[in-house]
Amino acid sequence: MDKDVEDTSLPVRVGPRPLALHLGLATTTVAGSLAALPIQKEGEFPWTVPLDGEAVDVAEKIKALAPADMLQALSLKGGEMVQEMIDGIHLYHQHSYRRPARERPTLWSAGTTSLLDCNPEASDTAPTLLIVPSLVNRSYVLDLMPGRSLVDFLAEQGIRPLLLDWDKPGKIEKDFNLENYIQERISPAIDFATNHFAKGDLHLAGYCMGGTLAVPAAIQKQELISSFVALASPWNFHAGLSAQAKMLLEQEALWATVLEGFGELPVDLLQTLFTSLDPNLGLRKFSAFSKMKMETDRAIEFVALEDWLNDGIPLVKKVTEECFHDWYGNNDPYRGHWRIGGEIVDCQKLTIPALIAVPKADKIVPRPSALAMAEKMPNAKIITPPSGHIGMITSSRAKSGLWQELSDWILSC
């Protein structure tokens, strides 16, 4: 087919979401660089500490150039970067890759929540790992594509992964709070797994927000499970929070208006919060993508991950209010004030073995936030995957990193 002819049989991509924000940030970055030039010429630009050494060399080179020449060079370079980003976005929109259907039998369901069996061929005595994903992202990040699937890898090691798939909130879930998700979804899923796979050990894992939600269920059900695993899960919600994210989260009147108007926190606003953690990520990654060969594994993996990132799930009103007020506002989990089922969620009460994965370069859940969970658990082991929040699950290094460490943990407990 002619590359210039759009294939209307494929679903239309709209990301990166929100597109206007990413384009606006890119152009603002370029404009800000131009505005900062006179300040740097005078030697007064406040370089960040990691750039101090490099900044001295850059400053000397700038002084040697005529202001008009430097301004023109910066303008041209900035324009090139923005154009590369736009080219990358167009290439992403036009890419032929679509995630293949994966056969995952549904074992149990409630409302829009399903428990998927990712290794139905496992033996009756195989250890079972029930994985709880975040509420705001699709669960298939753990099953992204052939060759980039954590659950496939675990199945190959003889483990039966069960993946809790939230899907979009339905009529029942629209009025849910955090306790509802824990008591009416996670806990019953544990009971189901216990009753149906009793011959093998049952382990409970949570990824990101899913790990935080899984803690109270693990405490309540620890007589049924052999170990608990948290993968980049926040616990101290004030630790390492960026100034941009903190500013956004503190806009209580704004969020109250949004929740009242929409009845939920829309995906694009959730993506705005994530973008605030690294405002120039879109500019960097789509510029890099524009230079890739589209048929390579690297480009296909980029598209697969970007599709997942843009396929978010809205957060229902009561959960949003609790996350903003109780978690990020009052820091209730870390301070020992979070209650589920009338009981304080006290990590010290979780006495079974726990594996806490804290990625080396996590911009979504800062290391001190995730480490706080391990510090409060009496029988916790900390591992440090050499990547970021998503990379530890999907990158080319994940197989020899987190995947292998998680598999070894499950098989040895």
Question: Please, could you describe this protein's structure?
Answer:
- With 413 residues, the protein is of the alpha/beta class.
- It folds into 2 domains: 19-94, no CATH class; 106-240 and 312-412, Alpha/Beta hydrolase fold, catalytic domain (Rossmann fold), CATH 3.40.50.
- It is built from 16 helices and 12 strands.
- An 8-stranded mixed sheet has the order 1-2-4-3-5-6-11-12, sandwiched between helices.
- A hairpin with a 2-residue loop joins strand 1 (106-110) and strand 2 (113-117).
- Residues 1-8 have low confidence and may be disordered.
- Assembly of the depicted chains: single chain
Task: Summarize model confidence as the mean pLDDT.
Answer: 89
Overall, the morphology is globular
Identify the strand order in the major beta sheet: 1-2-4-3-5-6-11-12
Give the amount of beta strand, in percent. 5-15%
User: Helix fraction?
Assistant: 40-55%
Order of helices and strands: HHHEEEHEHEHEHHEHHHEHHEEEHEHH
- Tally of DSSP helical segments: 16
Q: What's the number of domains? A: 2
> Using only CA atoms, what is the Rg?
23 Å
Report the top-level CATH class of the largest domain: Alpha Beta
Low-confidence stretches: 1-8
- Main beta-sheet strand count, sense and barrel state: 8 strands, mixed
**Second-tier CATH architecture of the largest domain:** 3-Layer(aba) Sandwich
Tally of DSSP β-strands: 12
- Let me know the CATH homologous superfamily of the largest domain: Alpha/Beta hydrolase fold, catalytic domain
